[in-house]
Amino acid sequence: MTNKSDIGLIGLAVMGENLALNIESKEWRVSVYNRTVAGVEEGVVEGFVSGRAHGKKIMGFNNIEDFVNSISQPRKIMLMVRAGNPVDELMEQLYPFLSPGDILIDGGNSNFEDTARRVRESEAKDIYFIGAGVSGGEEGALHGASIMPGGSAGAWFEVRPILQSIAAKAEDGSPCCEWIGPGGSGHFVKMIHNGIEYGDMQLISEAYFIMKHLLEASNEEMAAYFETWNEGKLKSFLIEITSKILKYKDAGGDYLIDKILDTAGQKGTGKWSVINAMELEMPLNLIATAVFERNLSARKELRMEASSIYHREASQKTYLAEELIKEIYSSLYASKLVSYAQGFNVLKYASDKYGWRLNLASIARLWRGGCIIRSAFLNEIAKAFEEDRHLSNLLLAPYFKDEIVSALPFWKRLVAVAAKEELPVPAFSSALNYFYSLTTNNLPANLVQAQRDYFGAHTFERIDLPRGVFMHENWIGKANSTKSGNYII
């Protein structure tokens, strides 16, 4: 076949279509194919090629062999299908038509352990496999996303020109796409990105909640605050769209935000972030809180029943807007820093455990454009990890230490005010308590460990002995000296 394409793409849902159009707009020729599965209407490929892709360098195929043969070698095929079994099923369909050196790219939100397995399985067949996290939603897919590729390093040279051409560009012009590392590292980084996204969204919703209930601010007033904040340290995609959401009116002329039911959904990557942080024995308190709050929000009927039983005292609403807004701003900023600090800590420990050698400064930079959590302070995060590549926690960096110290008085007051007024701000509270625990030299964990040794002979360390020396006490004078073993967690 003459005039073969540069890359193939499978999966023509919104993300797949937009990515295909983005790739073609950068002067690459694209072949597209859509899986035939139950519930998917016929003619998806034809509809796309004759519709949005009409007149463009995009070729459509309904036969998988013809699709593969239409791509120049080494073939580069991007899979934009639902995570899980569909990816494995599609790979099995593709293998018979591939040649050594061909490259499969999974652009979905796959579990990083699945990606690591697919890398091994594909490389055993002399096929390269890349797990590429893609962030930015449909707009990012069309105009430039943040892309986090990892897996078969030998494929990076081949795919780099295409992936970096379709990535978002940071303010300094650099593409928001860089090689992450081996195995499932690309999808792990995307997973933590999504976890931070959960935390950011919960924090912003709590800021909105306080303005609405303690200041009785109108949607337009709240939108103005967020719009102003988007011009400074809090500048970010989520702050920007929050301002737009608050001002948006439906066809009837009413504010749409006031008609949306207070139940939030989720697709699972936030939960995965928390599970994997627990496996690594790393605290991810704020993101875990955000996940659990979505779970609780979905129990609408239960919350309605509980609210009918427990009646809250009416607020006096004597708060000065200028003072309270400053407290909300400072709390939001400081809590976001905690969220990023926790997320990057998980990345650091995962890198050590799995031997990925992640470049944390590079990761911060590739999140500066295109992705959902792009924020103004990501440059400062990158700078902190460059200045100290052994930095154990982002909050220990001089710049962020000064930022936290400046925000702390307002942060404390806001959490106290919310508790007094019986308003839930679980993410603000979680972030503040993480900060207090992190900066407390002696925590009450000595009592926890004593309890564990008392009832389970789990041993403990003493402050008057070197670390790593574990003791067991015969607390009640009746048991023998048998102990359960050394449990550090």
UniProtKB/TrEMBL annotation:
Family as reported in the entry's similarity comment: Belongs to the 6-phosphogluconate dehydrogenase family.
Residue ranges occupied by any 6-phosphogluconate dehydrogenase C-terminal domain in the UniProt entry: 186-476
Role description: Catalyzes the oxidative decarboxylation of 6-phosphogluconate to ribulose 5-phosphate and CO(2), with concomitant reduction of NADP to NADPH.
Active site positions, chain numbering: 190 (proton donor), 197 (proton donor)
Pathway: Carbohydrate degradation; pentose phosphate pathway; D-ribulose 5-phosphate from D-glucose 6-phosphate (oxidative stage): step 3/3
Pfam family, one: NAD_binding_2
Binding site residues for substrate: 109, 135-137, 193-194, 198, 267, 294, 452, 458
InterPro entries (UniProt xref): 6-PGluconate_DH-like_C_sf, 6PGD_dom2, 6PGDH_C, 6PGDH_Gnd/GntZ, 6PGDH_NADP-bd, 6PGdom_BS, NAD(P)-bd_dom_sf, Pgluconate_DH
PROSITE patterns referenced in this protein's UniProt entry, alphabetically: 6PGD
Protein's GO biological process: D-gluconate metabolic process; pentose-phosphate shunt
GO molecular function: NADP binding; phosphogluconate dehydrogenase (decarboxylating) activity
Annotated catalysed reactions: 6-phospho-D-gluconate + NADP(+) = D-ribulose 5-phosphate + CO2 + NADPH
Subunit details: Homodimer.
Record-listed E.C. numbers: 1.1.1.44
SUPFAM superfamilies with a match to the protein in the record: 6-phosphogluconate dehydrogenase C-terminal domain-like (SSF48179), NAD(P)-binding Rossmann-fold domains (SSF51735)
Highest classification ranks of the organism: Bacteria, Pseudomonadati, Bacteroidota, Bacteroidia, Bacteroidales
Keyword annotations: Gluconate utilization, NADP, Oxidoreductase, Pentose shunt
Enzymatic class: oxidoreductase
Listed name of the protein: 6-phosphogluconate dehydrogenase, decarboxylating
